[in-house]
Amino acid sequence: MFTDANTENPAERYGVENEEMRQARLEIRALRAELAETANVIEDLKRQVLAARRQGERYRFQVEVLRRSSSWRLTRPLRIWQRRRTNAASK
To answer: Which residues form a coiled coil (predicted)?
Structure first.
């Protein structure tokens, strides 16, 4: 004997499955778009990190040049005196 499940119209069953597949495809499409957008954000952040590292290197180089300069060496005693004076005043 056939039960209700067996007498179900196959076209209706496939129609439901097709709708589920359509919904799944739409969701996959949306997720792929989100993934592409996230990948673009990641690439942009990588570029920003690289630029910040390069800027940091330039600043380190400038500090090194300054510390090797004759004016920095000549004013060393003055900086030491100022530091000691500031430390003594804070105690």
So the answer is: 14-55
**Which residues, including other chains, have CB under 8 Å from residue 75's CB and lie 6 or more apart?**
none
- Assessment of whether the complete model's pTM goes beyond 0.70: no
SS (H, E, C) 17-69: HHHHHHHHHHHHHHHHHHHHHHHHHHHHHHHHHHHHHHHHHHHHHHHHHHHHC
Q: Domain coordinates of the chain in residue numbers?
A: 10-90
The residue assigned the tokens 């105690």 is 91
Give the separation between CA 88 and CA 91, rounded to whole angstroms. 5
8 A C-beta contact, residue 43 and residue 37: no
